[in-house]
Amino acid sequence: MELQVQLLMNTLQIGSVYVLFALGLTLIFGVMKIVNFAHGTFFTAAALVVTSVMMWSVDTIGMPIWFSYLIAFVMALLVVCVIGFVVYFFGFKYVLKDLNGSFILSIGLLLLLNGTYLILYGGVPRSIPAVIPGNITILGASLTIQRLVLMIVAAIITLGLYILVHRTKLGLSLRAVAEDQEAAMLQGIPYRRVALYGFLIGATLAACAGALMATVTPVTTVIGDDFLVKAFIIIIIGGLGSVLGAILGGLLIALIESFGGYYFDPSTATLAMFVLVVILLIVRPQGILGHAEK
Amino acid sequence: MSMKKIIGITGGALLALFSAQTAIADETLKVGISAPMSGAAAAWGLGFEYAAEQAVAKINAEGGIKAGGKTYMLELHAYDNKYNAAEGAKTAQTMLNRENINFIVGSIGTAPVKATQALSERKGALLFNTGWGKSIKGPKYPLTFTQMNTPFEILAPFYGYIKEQHPDAKTVAMITPNDATGQELEPVAIDTWGNLDVEVISKDKYERGTTEFQSIATKIATSNADIVDFGASPPTDVGSMLKALDVLGWNGIKVVPAGTSAGTLSKMAGAAAEGTYLGASADFTGESASEIQRELNAGAMEKLGEALNGITISSYDAVMALKKAIETADSIEPKKIAETLPTIIFESSYGPAAFGGAEVYGNPQQILVPVMITQLRDGKAVEVGRIAPAELKKRLK
Amino acid sequence: MLKSNPGLALCILIAIGAICFALFSGDPYYVQVVIWVFANAALAVTLRFVLLIGELNIATAAFFGIGAYTTAVASTILGWPFFISLLAAPVIAGVISSLFGWITLRTKGPYFLLISFAFTEIVRLIYTKTEALGGNSGMIGMFPPMELDAYFPAIAISILAAILFGLYAAERSNLGRVFKAIKNNEDIPRSVGLNVIGLKILCLVIASTAVGLVGGVHAYTNSVIAPADFTYFVAVLALAYVKIGGEGHIVGPIIGATILTLAGQFLHSFGPYENIFYGAIIIGALLLVPGGIVGLGVRFKAGTLMGRAGR
Fold this sequence. Notes:
The structure holds three protein chains of three kinds.
Chain A: H1 2-32, H2 39-61, H3 65-90, H4 99-121, E1 135-138, E2 141-144, H5 145-167, H6 169-179, H7 181-186, H8 191-213, H9 223-238, H10 243-263, H11 266-283
Antiparallel strand pairs in A: 1-2
Helix pairs in contact in A: 1-5, 1-6, 1-8, 1-9, 1-10, 2-3, 2-4, 2-8, 2-9, 3-8, 5-6, 6-8, 9-10, 10-11
Chain B: H1 2-22, E1 27-35, H2 42-61, E2 65-67, E3 70-80, H3 85-98, E4 103-107, H4 110-123, E5 126-129, E6 144-146, H5 151-165, E7 171-177, H6 180-195, E8 199-206, H7 214-223, E9 227-229, H8 235-247, E10 253-256, H9 262-269, E11 277-278, H10 291-304, H11 314-329, H12 334-340, E12 346-348, E13 351-356, H13 358-361, E14 366-368, E15 371-377, E16 380-387, H14 390-396
Parallel strand pairs in B: 1-3, 1-4, 4-5, 5-6, 7-8, 7-9, 9-10, 10-11
Antiparallel strand pairs in B: 2-3, 11-15, 12-13, 13-14, 15-16
Helix pairs in contact in B: 2-11, 3-4, 5-6, 7-8, 8-9, 11-12
Chain C: H1 4-24, H2 28-51, H3 60-77, H4 82-104, H5 110-129, E1 139-140, H6 146-149, H7 152-172, H8 174-184, H9 187-191, H10 196-222, E2 224-225, H11 233-245, H12 251-267, H13 272-288, H14 292-305
Antiparallel strand pairs in C: 1-2
């Protein structure tokens, strides 16, 4: 019993970050109809910025760790927003709704940005000191307080996004654009501006995930790539463009990783995810919660 | 030491002065490196290139290599093999057929090394490599030499030492990445533990690039193994796993045969990494390190931000072995050099070293340098055992 | 559209020239570069062939790998003769692709893109976990027989050139026109009674058979293959060749592959800068030269014919 609780807890720990990452990807797909292979670079950039800022503020200035992490978190989001803004204005703006064009653009960005990170940061992994040290036991399952806080923060952000999409005017425009862009434009929704907002929100979500992950895992210049592949699986399972689908898909993949990794072995669990995707697509091509292609 | 150096330098300068009149312009001897310089394993390639650069600079500063009445200056060409076979084949083509490099003084990654070997043996070029597979050596590949210790050298003394320290340990859980190195290491590790009466109770593999190790940690913690053997896992992954294990309250004997960087490990896992035994790490700052190793290590720390390890420093040793072999053979013919290499004793970064290992591989193609067992204490790698290969001891007598 | 006949004649001349170069040049490196150019061109052209029906097929990389592994198994484990090992590659790739297409071509657009991506990863993971295929170390020892060794580069180039011309002919045929019609609006071919799904599968199988053969040639050219050679990135690079050369005509990907392959040779020792360069060139080509080099040529021609300068 204790074991199952531990595995479930692992699922939530892993899943919370997957959800954040996949949400951004699915949102960008929804409003722009593009598959962004460069999404992982936002995640990586945020994690790297956190390590840089922490190194500077803790080691050089001597600020308290929790305070410098807050600064680092904000800085990470800002940097990613700037990167997102630049790549939108000088790139994605020109390939909206062009599946192949945007795919190749995002691949170009992936190469360019990952190469740049490697030159700036080198191949040595970095890690930051514990922001909130200590462990905690819940129903017999142990985890670090950091992980617990991470899960809670991720859940709050996810909830916030859900409210944003379903309860605000911006959310309504995002959904309208995702549903039918031409109809939305006829209703007077400025498509390009909404697409930009959607893209920036998506990038910020990846940045949140990256900045949170930096507290619990070593940061390398390719850290985002692993999440990218998983996130693709998640959004296919959940249905491209579906917010709820990304949340469920993220948790499902984390469940497979946690239980499959325990009862079989981790590399088999990875294979199982891909196989699941293919089977699901045969049965239900539009994903669990996706809309059928017209 | 310094007196010897001064004499050496003055001697070299005088020699250069005299020979300047007779010798025609110095010839250039190209040497190549094929290693990952981008992607997840970039740190290895960059450190490897650095160590080779230093060896080349040192040899050139001391007047180059003399053979057949000519003086050769070394020129290093480093290529990114991206850790895969296809790129390994491309870099091999570039080195061997375009640049006409006859001496590859270092290659990293089992798959790209094999791809390079397919061409280098056909072309008659010398190939130094860090490949951990047994299949890479043998009479079929007379021009291939391994420049660092592999599991066949490391595991027996390494595990033996651990069993000696912890005679009560009866069970071990293995976890290793699902890559070529991990797949080559696992069976050797299982055999070696078996010979020591330690039972392997679980063996798991994970994909390289994974960042979440919660499920593996849970599995190990619930298995209650006395020892965890992290196989070919790189230090970053081991750090993540140790951290997760610590949270779950597991505290047993931690063993990392491919543990290259103690610094990274302790940075990643902090106190959770204390006491970990490392097989391929080296304490290049400690007392047992040679002066050369200390110098190289300090330089790498400054330039790359990471200490050297058993893999990365091996390119230095290969260049030094090559120099000695060329001078002994008095030729730059790769085949002659390959015949000479097993007969010489050369000055490696560890001290005097040689090539041997005919008993294991059927051909003397394995560098003989000490296996250094280190343990992480207070965040630093401390050498707890240094086992020189018996074959080397015999040769040095 | 480029005028086909003089262009085709020129292409045939270039192919014959390349084969002669492989036969008579003594420089193994440059011969090797020519093989890479042809192999990359063939990869790009097969990727583009599925683009004719409007689908981006990342599984091009998977079928390339399946071809290479088939040849490797046939020649090193089964000990089959050279040409039979080589021919097994397209057969197996074709058979598997017909199954893959039958299952997946009911989806399209981003879904097909992502399934083909997932399939490529699955196939790669299966290699890494299969001990008989050498696991992650891959397979070694695919050498052409000794008596053919000297001619192998010429044989490889001939096969690859034949693939290029074959796919060109397929595109120019009625079948090719139907494929393009499916891309434009699949309801129209369906309304005249054509089996659209069947035709889509056929298109995928033709392309996969061709790329399987490229994989077979790859296995013999490199003598060593490993799972990491067949990641989705192979298809990504192929797409870059297509985009830079231009999607509008079959020579587009060939030009793109030629330029980037040659550029890659000079960038090889650039370490991390190599990726930055590739990234920059892909982004630049996409945004500044949207129709690729071929598109540029067409636009230039149109501009001069109509008496106004190209934009």
